[in-house]
Amino acid sequence: FHPKTLKGQHWVITAGPTVEAIDPVRYLANRSSGKMGYAIAEMAARAGAKVTLISGPVCLAAPFGVNRISVESAETMLNAVQKSITKDSVFVSCAAVADYRPQEVADEKMKKSGDDGLVIELTQNPDILKWAAQESGAFCVGFAAETQNVSEYAKAKMERKGITMICANDVSRCDIGFSCDDNELQVFYRDNDHVKTQGIGPANKALVAEELIQLINKVRQS
Ligand code: C5P
């Protein structure tokens, strides 16, 4: 990357899982290592962008030159995104946001009660990407982790959320995706009235990030 490729641009990237508290010691979460989002943040910074990385709990160091904001729940992630993005930003929504959170969070550690099961009532979390697409004016890129009908579901998701670009990956495969160092993406993007597609990888997540950034930059400027 030329260090001036993204000069003057502000990229906001979400990464990792969100964790939704049940009580002080337990939570619900999604599977996500954060590696893909961190790779995009690192490469965007190397290409000269100002980068804000809004991250759920992961075991990764903040990449050099990146401003990391650490969050836990979907609501705190939404809050951080709302404070960070403007209409001129590029927003890459890589986080595995929990769709639901426990309706009530217990103040004290919950105790086992006899041999009975346990019912936890869940309430829906806000959709951060949908908010960004509808309210912020930023150029929005989503991810779609699917285990079947990957391209159909991804295209439908792009419509539903009102975004310009979506990166689909098949998380049912064990050689790419979750926790792996490699990934393969099928990117769909709007071009006037058409939906175009481009494959990226399989390759190391750093290389995938580099190609994806180039594609985002091209589509955004077209
Ligand atoms: O609807 P689904 O979760 O499959 O959509 C995935 C995309 O939407 C990802 O880009 C993810 O980061 C984003 N998302 C979000 N807020 C949610 C759920 C998903 O930003 N509550």
Automatic annotation (TrEMBL):
Entry keyword Secreted: no
Pathway: Cofactor biosynthesis; coenzyme A biosynthesis; CoA from (R)-pantothenate: step 3/5; Cofactor biosynthesis; coenzyme A biosynthesis; CoA from (R)-pantothenate: step 2/5
EC number: 4.1.1.36, 6.3.2.5
Molecular function terms, GO-annotated: ligase activity
Annotated DNA/pantothenate metabolism flavoprotein C-terminal domain residues: 6-218
Reaction catalysis annotation: (R)-4'-phosphopantothenate + L-cysteine + CTP = N-[(R)-4-phosphopantothenoyl]-L-cysteine + CMP + diphosphate + H(+); N-[(R)-4-phosphopantothenoyl]-L-cysteine + H(+) = (R)-4'-phosphopantetheine + CO2
Cofactor binding annotation: Binds 1 FMN per subunit.
UniProt keyword list: Decarboxylase, Flavoprotein, FMN, Ligase, Lyase, Magnesium, Metal-binding, Multifunctional enzyme
Domain of life: Bacteria
Family of the protein in this entry: In the C-terminal section; belongs to the PPC synthetase family.
Protein name: Coenzyme A biosynthesis bifunctional protein CoaBC
Gene: coaBC
First and last residues shown, out of full length: 180 to 401 of 401
